Amino acid sequence: MAAVKQKKIVKAKKRAAPKKAKVLKKLVRQPSSVVDADGWPSPRNVFFRPERMKYVRKLVKVSGCVFCTAAKAKPSFESLCVFKSQHSQIILNKYPYNNGHLLVLPLNHLGNILDLSPERYDDLHQTLRIAMEAVQRLYAPAGFNVGLNHGASAGAGIPDHIHYHIVPRWGGDLNFFPLIANAKIVVETLETSYNRFLQYFDSLQRGQS
Ligand SMILES: [Zn+2]
Predict the structure, then answer these.
(1) What is the mean pLDDT of residues 47-64?
(2) Catalytically annotated residue among 87, 101, 161, 163
(3) Which fold has domain 66-208?
(4) SS (H, E, C) the chain
(5) Distance between Cα 7 and ligand 1 center (Å)
(6) Ligand 1 centre and the CA of 107: distance in Å?
(7) Which of 184, 158, 153 is nearest to 169 (CA)?
């Protein structure tokens, strides 16, 4: 009796096999905007990485805040701070996407831009303008990416201390490295960038005083 049952299962499997192959073939031929055999839209390759969950849930905690450390000290290459206004500061991104990549942020530690007082909000945006002018003068980019990733879910690396990114852009400056190796080729060293900005802001402040 058991043997008969086993034979039936084998036969059923044989019948199912070509059907499965057919479905797979169909999926390969279909454009990505259609649904899969079960009705899920946009079939595509998904690499499940459950071990990444600890990062999503922030189980890996960082001690201290680099922006607050920079806010408490004078501008220096150690903190990467190149300029301070009354309520804001300009810092070089330690891992720049491009030469001259700056961060503009309030001196006080806060993760929600809506919590800034009107005075501090204005100061932040005046400083953003000063930073863009600096990049324009020193690097003469063809364009800029200026943006704020507001909150961890929006991609902020340090979500508890808001910061604008200013990334100078040139035509054709994108390559495939960031996609495949989490790496980016930046031709200027951080130290050179830092000294260029520092010199610029020094002469700017001397001109103002
Ligand atoms: Zn902070």
Answers:
(1) 60
(2) 163
(3) HIT family, subunit A (3.30.428)
(4) CHHHHHHHHHHHHHHHHHHHHHHHHHHHHCCCCCECCCCCECCCCCCCCHHHHHHHCCCCCCCCCHHHHHHHCCCCCCCCEEEECCCEEEEECCCCCCCCCEEEEECCCCCCHHHCCHHHHHHHHHHHHHHHHHHHHHHCCCEEEEEECCCHHHCCCCCCCCCEEEEEECCCCCCCHHHHHCCCCCCCCHHHHHHHHHHHHHHHHHHHC
(5) 68
(6) 8
(7) 184
Four-residue CA torsion sign, 136, 142, 148, 149: negative
Structure tokens at 99: 């030469």
pLDDT band at 32 (very low <50, low <70, confident <90, very high): very low
* Threshold 0.85, pTM exceeds: no
Cα-to-centroid distance, 108 and ligand 1 (Å): 6
pLDDT value for 96: 87
Mean pLDDT, residues 127-136 taken together: 98
Handedness of CA 139, 142, 147, 152 (dihedral sign): negative
142-151, 173-182, 198-207, range with the lowest pLDDT:
173-182
pLDDT of residue 31 exceeding 90? no
Which residues of the chain are in CATH 3.30.428.10 domains? 66-208
Identity of the residue numbered 21: A
Residue 163 falls in the annotated catalytic set: yes
Judged against a pLDDT cut of 70, whether residue 28 lies above it is answered with: no
